[in-house]
Specification:
single chain; 321 residues; alpha/beta; Rossmann fold; 2 domains; six-stranded parallel β-sheet; four-stranded parallel β-sheet; 46% helix; elongated
Length: 321
């Protein structure tokens, strides 16, 4: 009987040791390839900005195949927080070495990312900054790699101000209200309007969605016929506003501005349908995050620091591409 108990304990110890070894080796590498496995988790791949981000990351991995393996994930809807949380949980279960994430919500993703860090996974936040207070409450530090969204939006707003006169009325289409980048873009737009003496006569969230922006912009134009411009917190919403302005017969009277510099908006700027946008270099943004994650994997004692990435004003004069 004692021999059976001893044998069982040996087998149990061996199984535990094997499971630990299969998760990550001492260097933080995936055992299958000897390279770290990085998971990129984004918001809606239906949004061209994030599909461009994915392609940029995939190209970078293809150019550096010996450095890391890449897993790319995205959600179907910008607001599908539950699915994005589930993706993080799946990556934890898959024993990835690093997660680079553009969170759909600045607060809701923090608890599951804390669990990822507790599991020994390096986590890097890109695009939409996680909420500082929630991070503090959860007792976790996660570096942010991305642009200053407020500064970028202020550049767009200042450019609009140069085309209008003091007292003109402007409407703003906001992103998801719980997203830090949406909050910062609204703040940048609003600050630029205040400094120029322009009036924000209406602002509503269209939750990053083109169709919803079309509906809301149409309502804004009907309720506020004096509107001279619509500032949209992303390019998908700007395109929705373009359609609304056209339907209202005001394409020559209302200026449209966006944020992201997706290809459809590049064309719209060339055609004069959109005045300007901001380029935060989506094809490079995930790469910056991946590079930072790889550095942290190489040196676990490295100081976790935020990294500010470029954001540029794009107009017809500057060149939309």
């Amino acid at each position: 009987m004692k021999r059976f108990i001893l044998l069982g304990l040996v087998l149990l110890w061996t199984g535990c040791s094997s499971e630990s070894a299969n998760s990550k080796n001492a260097a933080g590498n995936s055992p299958e390839s000897g390279k770290p496995k990085v998971a990129l988790i984004m918001k809606s791949l239906a949004n061209e900005f994030f599909s461009t981000m994915a392609k940029g990351a995939e190209k970078y991995q293809a150019e550096n195949p010996d450095q890391f393996d890449l897993v790319v994930n995205g959600i179907k809807d910008e607001r599908d927080l539950g699915r994005q949380v589930a993706l993080v949980e799946e990556m934890i279960a898959s024993n990835v070495d690093a997660i680079v994430i553009a969170p759909a919500d600045s607060k809701a993703l923090v608890p599951v990312l804390r669990r990822a860090k507790k599991a020994g996974i390096v986590v890097v936040n890109i695009d939409n900054r996680l909420d500082a207070e929630v991070l503090k409450t959860e007792g976790v530090t996660i570096p942010f790699v991305g642009p200053d969204n407020k500064a970028g939006a202020k550049k767009v707003g200042a450019y609009l101000a140069s085309k209008l006169k003091s007292g003109d009325g402007v409407c703003i289409l906001e992103g998801v209200l719980t997203s830090f980048n949406g909050q910062q873009r609204f703040a940048g737009f609003e600050e630029a309007m205040q400094e120029a003496g322009l009036k924000v006569i209406d602002h509503q969230t269209a939750e990053w969605e083109m169709s919803k922006a079309n509906t809301i912009a149409s309502s804004m134009l009907s309720e506020h016929p004096e509107t001279k411009a619509i500032l949209a917190a992303n390019d998908s919403m700007a395109l929705g506003a373009v359609a609304a302005v056209k339907a209202a017969g005001k394409s020559d009277d209302v200026l449209i501005l966006g944020f992201d510099n997706i290809s459809a908006v590049q064309q719209a700027i060339e055609e004069g349908k959109i005045l300007a946008t901001a380029d935060q270099h989506g094809d490079q943004l995930a790469i910056y995050g991946i590079q930072n994650a790889l550095k942290l994997l190489e040196d676990s004692s490295a100081v976790v620091e935020d990294v500010e990435t470029p954001v540029d004003l794009i107009t017809k004069e500057s060149g939309a591409k």
